[in-house]
TrEMBL record:
Binding sites annotated in the UniProt record for substrate: S56, T85, D86
InterPro entries in UniProt: Asp/glu_Ase-like_sf (IPR036152), Asparaginase/glutaminase-like (IPR006034), L-asparaginase_N (IPR027474), L-asparaginase_N_sf (IPR037152)
UniProt protein name: Asparaginase
Entries under Pfam families matching the protein: Asparaginase (PF00710)
PANTHER family associated with the record: 60 KDA LYSOPHOSPHOLIPASE, L-ASPARAGINASE
Active site: T14 (o-isoaspartyl threonine intermediate)
Domain L-asparaginase N-terminal: 5-157
Organism ancestry: Bacteria, Pseudomonadati, Verrucomicrobiota, Spartobacteria, Chthoniobacterales
TM annotation in the entry: none
Organism of derivation: Chthoniobacter flavus Ellin428
Length: 164
């Protein structure tokens, strides 16, 4: 029986932001997925690969091409990508034609370091989705799993929703 191994590709975004009190600003910090998974005492193998450390509004076409290259080069079939929520759907569309892997994007509306963050819940949903979904590209946010090309961020409601 093959053991589950998930490749986690981090790109930055709010999920990894840290607060600098002296200047009252936020900056993207180190990936927070490892502390969250350690606290959850997960029983699967994973490898974390940092693609970049940017707010998603700063991601370029070259960054998206690099993320795509990393996904295609990964030996794992199960890929989780942490990503800022503002342009997550754009990056998902760049990977939509990859049909031999399960690729799940997730992020957070509040930094993972915040006690009231949605990050741990979103990570959990994404981990479940990457194990159970058919090959394709998905976005796991707000307790839902969406096809990667049929979802949008509703900024007013602070959540993702299906495109009709």
């Amino acid at each position: 029986m093959n053991e589950l191994k998930i490749r986690i590709i981090t790109t930055g975004g709010t999920i990894d932001k840290i607060y600098f009190d002296a200047t009252s600003t936020y900056e993207v910090g180190a990936p927070q997925v490892v502390p969250v998974l350690t606290e959850a005492n997960v029983s699967f193998e994973y490898v974390v690969e940092q693609a970049c450390q940017k707010d998603s509004l700063e991601l370029t076409d070259a960054d998206r091409a690099d993320i795509r290259r990393r996904v295609l080069a990964a030996p794992e079939r199960h890929i989780l990508i942490t990503h800022g929520t503002d342009t997550m759907t754009e990056t998902a569309k760049c990977l939509a034609d990859i049909t031999d892997k399960v690729i799940v994007f997730t992020g957070a509306m509040a930094p993972a370091r915040f006690r009231s963050s949605d990050a741990p819940f979103n990570f959990g949903c994404a981990i479940a989705a990457v194990q159970l979904a058919a090959p394709g590209v998905y976005i796991a946010m707000n307790g839902r799993i969406f096809p990667g090309t049929a979802v949008r961020k509703n900024r007013e409601k602070g959540r993702f929703e299906a495109i009709e």
